[in-house]
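Thread: "does anyone have the structure for this chain?"

Original post by V.I.:
We have the sequence but no experimental structure in hand. Need at least a predicted one for the grant figures.
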Amino acid sequence: MLVEGVSDQVALEVLARRQEMDLAAAGVTVVAMHGITNIGHFLARFHALDPEIRIAGLYDEAEERFVLRGLEQVGLVNSVAGAGDRAWLESLGFFGCSADLEDELIRALGPEEVERLVAAEGQLRSFRTLQKQPALRDRSLHDQLRRLMSGRSGGKERYAALMAEAVAPDRVPRPLARVLARASSDQ
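Reply from O.Q.:
Generated one for you, tokens below.
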């Protein structure tokens, strides 16, 4: 399972554990590519090892072109076949987050619940200071929380784990639920 970064990896691993999915026993590895622009490299590498390997992925919708280009590079798609057709990409096992992982999880939990997680982490005072910054003052709580998570080293991973742990099973964002379902059905 290819994902953009460590926060995506952490969230999927937490959600899998909560669903009692043993990814390792199922032969599934979640691989953080450290940026979607690396997808072509990873697809080529795994495809060369085993052309029949089943690969799934999670990406930010704004970065869909990189997924298409990567699939094209390894000959799994021609440049016209699925361009702009998200259902087609999903049939191949690639699922897009509307903005990004954090956006999906904040929407699933609700910004007020995420703010409670921030408080439980002892970060509310720091968050209040961040909210007062001129660039963020007039932004929504949702956007301010996304900025908090991306503003500090390790913040995305930390909050991805916390939010994945807190989200109700019936509220798991669709792209995360679908990529995990794909992983469990590929055995």
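V.I.: this helps a lot. Residues 2-101+169-185 form one domain.
O.Q.: and The longest strand covers residues 57-60.
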